[in-house]
User: What shape does this take?
Amino acid sequence: MDRRRQAPFPPHRLPRCPWRGMDDLYVAYHDREWGVPVHDRRAFAGFDPEQVARFDQARIKALLADPGIIRNRAKIEAAVTNVRAFLRLAEAFGSFDAYIWRFVDGRPRINAWRRLEDVPASTPESEAMSRDLRRRGFRFVGPTMCYTFMQAVGMVNDHLISCFRYRELGGAAAAPVAAGGADGAADSPAHGGA
Assistant: This one.
């Protein structure tokens, strides 16, 4: 076995972001998915936005009786409303991906956080995304929710600089934005551009 290709730490000892805890599912999510740039991924197996967009009050009532989901009428109705808005955006911009990645000018923001408490709950980009999504009919899309989405789909690299995933996802290989902030080009939606 070529020792040069081995990780400097055994997999269970790799330096990771502390939020993932010790649960195997969270560790796997942290190591394989969180912060990886995603374009046009289907979020759920069998998710069909056109079908969900046709849900009526009878279908929503049936969902409220389903013990396998969060049974909150406002959230279920918002999910249907958001799918309809999602389809309108996809049509207007060619894809939801083309719309959403505009908030970071089409490429991930590389931050340089040293401590978990340095990572913000929202940014100017997530605030702009939230405003624009609400303007376009989305619900339950506040700036913190938008920033969490941006982290999950790799629009930002918020792995701590001590985490092994930071470098794998472009940290230090690309010039980090000043002290972990976002540079935001003037023509991005976050800064009043198109």
Residues 41-94 form one domain. The longest strand covers residues 109-110. Residues 73-93 form the longest helix (21 residues). DSSP finds eight helices and two strands in the chain.
